[in-house]
Amino acid sequence: MLESILLGLLQGLAEFLPVSSSGHLVLGKTILGMQEAGMFFDIMLHAGTLLSIFFIFRKKIIDMILCVFRREKEQLNYALFIILASIPTAVVGIGFKDQLESLFQNPRAVCVALLITGVLLFCTKFAPTGPKYPDAVAKPMNWWRAIITGTVQGIACMPGISRSGSTTSTMLYMGISRKYAGEFTFLMSIPAVGGAALLDFLDWLKCQGPENLSEACASAGTLDLTLIVGMIVAFVAGIFALKWLMSFVQRGKLHYFSWYVWAIGILGLIFLPSA
């Protein structure tokens, strides 16, 4: 039960804070001997974080759904930009799946990626809509900005590159307002996180046959109380992380996280053995 609570807490916080949850998983396995959660537990944790997005942005999501009937151009465009951004994310994430997964076996590469994440976060201080320019006029989202943002989200499948940090930073560099960038980053994550959970669920279903005795299926897991607790903790922690990060983004303080990821990346390069 305690392990479920801790994993749910880590999932809820690290999934949204710009510190790369996948990078921390790799380093945790290397340094602390942490083990990955079972397949079904992973699905439940993803469900918890997805629910936290729906809870925080419920009004925006409802407005986008109703825009089809109300024919509100602004909300319809918002939904279309999310769909458009999801296309390059899927292409990069699926097309380079094997190459990206191989990086999970290279902790030092993860440390380098964390340093890159730190640079992206730190440079938001000087972005057109960053804290240095409080009176800047923001540029609107359009089709090519959505495609660039979605491509960056796909690249962020690399462990050590923060998805929320890299996509938010990219939009700030393109002159998108801080509030819009923060909201779009997390709403855009719904297809990405939901798609990952769906793929895991399909893999889990394949493991339910009595003839499937593979090593991966041996730890697939089933629904029980500990998994439900983990999902609830991930949901609550996700709400906290979302509100906290949105506050940082809107106040132009996203760069504060750069010092943390730099510290982790540098310490990892110093103390982790070479491959």
Number of E-type strands? 0
Oligomer: single chain
Overall SS class:
mainly alpha
Number of domains: 1
- What summary fits the major beta sheet? none
Summarize this structure briefly.
With 275 residues, the protein is an all-alpha fold. Helices cover 72% and strands 0% of the residues. The protein has one domain (2-271).
Describe the structure.
This protein has helices at 2-14, 21-31, 39-56, 58-70, 73-95, 97-102, 107-122, 143-155, 163-173, 178-206, 215-218, 225-250, 256-271. By secondary structure, it is an all-alpha fold. The protein has one domain (2-271). The longest helix is centred in the C-terminal third of the chain and has 29 residues, at 178-206. The mean pLDDT is 84.
Features:
0% strand, 275 residues, 72% helix, 13 helices, mainly alpha
Helix/strand layout:
Layout lengths: L1 H13 L6 H11 L7 H18 L1 H13 L2 H23 L1 H6 L4 H16 L20 H13 L7 H11 L4 H29 L8 H4 L6 H26 L5 H16 L4
Helix pairs in contact: 1-3, 1-12, 2-7, 3-10, 3-12, 4-5, 5-8, 5-10, 7-13, 8-9, 9-10, 10-12
